[in-house]
Write a structure and sequence with these properties.
Number of domains of chain B: 2
Structural class of chain B: mainly alpha
Shape of chain B: elongated
Oligomer: heterodimer
Order of helices and strands of chain A: HEHEHEHEEHEEHEHHHEHEHEEHEHHHH
CATH topology of the largest domain in chain B: MetI-like fold
Number of helices of chain A: 16
Largest interface: A-B, 50 and 45 residues
Strand content of chain A: 15-25%
CATH architecture of the largest domain in chain A: 3-Layer(aba) Sandwich
CATH architecture of the largest domain in chain B: Orthogonal Bundle
CATH class of the largest domain in chain B: Mainly Alpha
Shape of chain A: globular
Distance between the termini of chain B: 52 Å
Radius of gyration of chain A: 23 Å
Strand order of the largest sheet of chain B: 2-1-3
Helix content of chain B: 55-70%
Distance between the termini of chain A: 66 Å
Helix content of chain A: 40-55%
Number of helices of chain B: 16
Order of helices and strands of chain B: HEHHHEHHEHHHHHHHHEHH
Number of domains of chain A: 2
CATH class of the largest domain in chain A: Alpha Beta
Largest sheet of chain A: 9 strands, mixed
Chain lengths: 350, 429
């Protein structure tokens, strides 16, 4: 019995390890942003079901982690594609060049809105980016009007803006490692900060000081880092009608019966408003392809074709069902041409 | 003569003392027992809350809403020799439109079509491939409904909410109600959940892929860590000289058992992926990393089991002329085996529930295909739970709880096997 078990186990082992060290990979390996993950996985699944190729493997590593893995070198042990919820940085391109990756193809796939939402049990908020900056920055302009900053004294939304309800400021949001947080800080906090003349002047004069004021989120309680799990934020908001949450539009779209997005600068976060650019807090999403891998790993061209097809990213495509905001037709045409011709990214454009 | 008096007075004093303290001691005894009882009931309560909340939100995942379609397998579009090129999606669409002939508008048709899962066409394709003789005939087939419909049927979406706050509009609900009247929509046992790999559509997602990944990972872990662990334990306990060097080794092993598991993941990334260039995301690397993690547990349990074998056994074996190796192999090891196995199973159970080290070696990934070997990319059960918990679709919430239930079932089986083995083979000396 023992011998039988042992031989069965070793057979299983040999059968499984037999193909170790195979120098090729027959599936596409994708890494990168957790924001793009829901979209690229849908494309990958459809691609796997409708073509003869294997379904690509997709890891959700975050944008920064994805670029690091992507730029590590050329060869089957390195990923072929990285998803990114921001544009690739110059330094990342330089690292990739140093590791022998000379041609990177950049594909923009669409837009994602960042929403500030609360439970439907409470009233809808009507915010400006200045309000949000004042409520969440660690240091805010002195309320007495002098051009200095003081530690954030505001406790309720009413303190920030008399038109807002007298509710304690309580915001659940992503931690600094998240791409959503990067985009939120850039699109909301920076713009909010620039509403003050002396902070705006600082941007040119003292960039470091400007960043430290606009990018530092308060840590005295009102802003609660809720982890990378957006579903957790959704559940907490449902349980606590006094709190606001910051997360990607697709989660609001899926939970429209429980949550409502706050109006920002007079525009509510609905599909149409994000698509036409009138909702101010939206960002482009990208993925990057290693050109050297294209004919080494089977299926990359076909995967690009699937992703850039109208049935995927078009106005009525299946990605919009998952919450992706499509690009205008002309922009779609531009990037599907890039995908077809594999036009590499020019580092000087960044 | 004074002596007896002394004893009596002395014994009286003792009795008095005992009597005086007795109430206090009884009280202390009761208090202690009550505290123990409280601790146990508190932990049972926590466990009950956990189980009830998981079961309450997860049991519905074992059911799946399906819709019956009357499909005519038109032979003109279906060539039995080339089924891959057939338009199964078109057949499904036609069948659904035929059920609601009043729907003409293109937008309305799209809404109607969204009641069905994108898996409906694949289901039909599988059926036709399995039964090519049915081509040219009509058949009725139950196909999966979309996850929004599924949520509505299970009562997770309130039908009475205003239209804008639901993912299904009034018209779609009226279609569903029409289907309900005709008995063409029902809930059935969800086999997909146990046979499919991961998917981005909750109604098509299953845990079989993750279970296979966990199985392959654990096989590697077991066949590496058990022999190495037992050999290390035997050598350290029976053969190694007792000196400072072995002391250092012992301290290190105990230390390793307490190292956070993410550290082993980082080690695996540096050694197995970057240095040996083993395939990323494979259960081979996962198993190697988990081996490192479980080895200390097995060695410590193994040494404890060896220590509990009484020295008389060893001496008797040596006394009748056995060599040291024979003594260990024939007598000590068989007697220590139940304890070692228990330790191994508990170590395996821990490895089964581990996510953190797998994160570093790329096993936290979206993988649809069922892994077929040790080098195929794969995930593991706890990783699947983590991924589903992070998905925006409502349908994944119940899937998450259901996957936790499956993981718990495996853990309970493994731990009760450990208890059973211990009860059955344990010898008391």
């Amino acid at each position: 019995m023992k011998k039988l078990l042992l031989s069965v186990l070793s057979l299983v082992f040999i059968a499984g390890v037999g193909n170790v060290g195979a120098e090729s990979r027959d599936y596409i390996s994708i890494v990168g942003s957790s924001t793009v993950y829901p979209f690229s996985t849908v494309v990958a699944e459809n691609f796997g079901k409708t073509t003869k190729f294997k379904t690509p493997k997709i890891e959700s590593t975050g944008s920064g982690g994805g670029h690091k893995l992507f730029g590590a070198g050329v060869g089957v042990q390195h990923p072929d594609i990285t998803n990114s919820s921001r544009r690739i940085q110059k330094s990342e391109v330089e690292t990739a060049m140093k590791n022998g990756i000379n041609e990177i193809v950049e594909i923009k796939i669409g837009y994602d809105g960042i929403v500030i939402a609360n439970s439907k049990k409470a009233k809808q908020f009507n915010l400006t980016r200045k309000d949000i900056f004042l409520a969440l920055a660690a240091n805010v302009p002195n309320p007495d009007g002098t051009p200095t900053v003081v530690p954030n004294p505001y406790k309720t939304w009413k303190d920030v803006n008399p038109e807002l309800p007298a509710m304690a400021i309580e915001v659940l949001g992503p931690p600094p490692t998240s791409g959503t947080r990067d985009a939120f800080v850039e699109l909301v906090m920076e713009t909010g900060g620039k509403k003050f003349e002396f902070i705006k002047a600082m941007e040119k004069a003292d960039g470091k000081q400007f960043k430290s004021i606009c990018h530092t989120v308060r840590e005295d309680g009102p802003y609660i880092e809720a982890g990378e799990n957006d579903n957790l934020i959704v559940q907490k908001l449902d349980a606590n009608p006094n709190a606001l949450g910051i997360f990607g539009f697709s989660f609001l779209d899926q939970n429209a019966d429980k949550l409502q997005g706050s109006v920002v600068e007079g525009v509510a976060p609905v599909f149409e408003a994000i698509a036409d650019g009138s909702y101010p807090v939206s960002r482009p999403l990208f993925f990057y392809v290693k050109k050297a891998h294209v004919d080494q790993i089977p299926g990359i061209r076909e995967y690009l074709k699937e992703f850039t097809s109208e049935k995927a990213w078009g106005d009525e495509g299946y990605l919009t069902d998952k919450g992706l905001i499509p690009m205008p037709a002309a922009e779609r045409k531009k990037y599907s041409d890039i995908a077809n011709n594999l036009t590499p990214l020019n580092a000087s454009d960044l | 003569m004074n002596k007896p008096e002394n004893t009596t007075s002395g014994s009286v004093r003792t009795v008095d003392l005992v009597q005086k303290g007795l109430a206090r001691r009884y009280k202390a005894e009761k208090r202690f027992r009550r505290m123990g009882l409280c601790a146990i009931s508190f932990s049972l309560l926590c466990l009950a809350v956990l189980f009830i909340s998981i079961f309450g939100s997860g049991y519905s995942a074992f059911q799946q809403t399906v819709i019956e379609l009357d499909i005519v397998l038109d032979p003109s579009g279906l060539n039995p020799n080339n089924l891959a090129g057939a338009d199964f999606n078109g057949l499904v669409k036609t069948a659904l439109y035929n059920m609601f002939p009043e729907v003409k508008d293109r937008g309305e048709k799209k809404k109607l079509l969204s009641l069905l899962s994108s898996g409906a066409a694949y289901k039909l394709a599988d059926f036709v491939k399995a039964h090519p003789d049915r081509i040219g005939k009509a058949l009725s087939l139950w196909v999966p409904a979309d996850d929004d419909v599924d949520m509505l049927m299970k009562g997770h979406i309130n039908r009475n909410l205003p239209e804008t706050e639901r993912r299904l509009n009034d018209q779609q609900i009226s279609w569903i109600e029409a289907l309900e009247e005709q008995g063409k929509i029902k809930k059935k046992f969800n086999t997909t959940f146990f046979t499919a790999g991961d998917s981005r559509e909750p109604e098509l997602a299953g845990i079989w892929g993750a279970t296979c990944g966990s199985f392959y990972t654990l096989v590697i872990t077991l066949i590496l860590s058990f022999p190495i662990g037992v050999a290390a334990a035997v050598y350290l306990e029976e053969f190694a000289p007792k000196n400072r060097f072995t002391d250092i080794i012992e301290v290190n092993i105990n230390n390793l058992a307490a190292v956070p598991s993410i550290v082993f993941g980082l080690l695996g990334l540096a050694v197995f992926l970057n240095f040996f260039e083993l395939p990323r995301s494979s259960s081979l690397v996962g198993g190697l990393v988990l081996t490192l993690m479980t080895l200390p547990t097995i060695i410590i349990a193994g040494r404890a089991a060896l220590k509990s074998v009484p020295p008389s056994i060893r001496e008797a074996a040596l006394g009748v002329g056995a060599s040291k190796t024979q003594m260990v192999a024939h007598h000590v090891l068989p007697l220590a085996m139940p304890g070692m196995l228990t330790g191994t199973i508990i170590g395996m159970a821990r490895a089964l529930g581990e996510t953190a080290p797998l994160l570093m070696i790329g096993m936290v990934a979206f993988i649809v295909d069922i892994p077929g070997g040790f080098t195929d990319p794969s995930t593991a059960l706890p990783v699947q739970i983590f991924l589903w918990a992070d998905s925006p679709e409502r349908g994944f919430m119940e899937k998450t709880s259901a996957a936790i239930m499956v993981l718990l079932v495996f853990l309970v089986i493994m731990n009760s096997a450990a208890v059973y083995l211990r009860k059955k083979y344990e010898k008391r000396w």
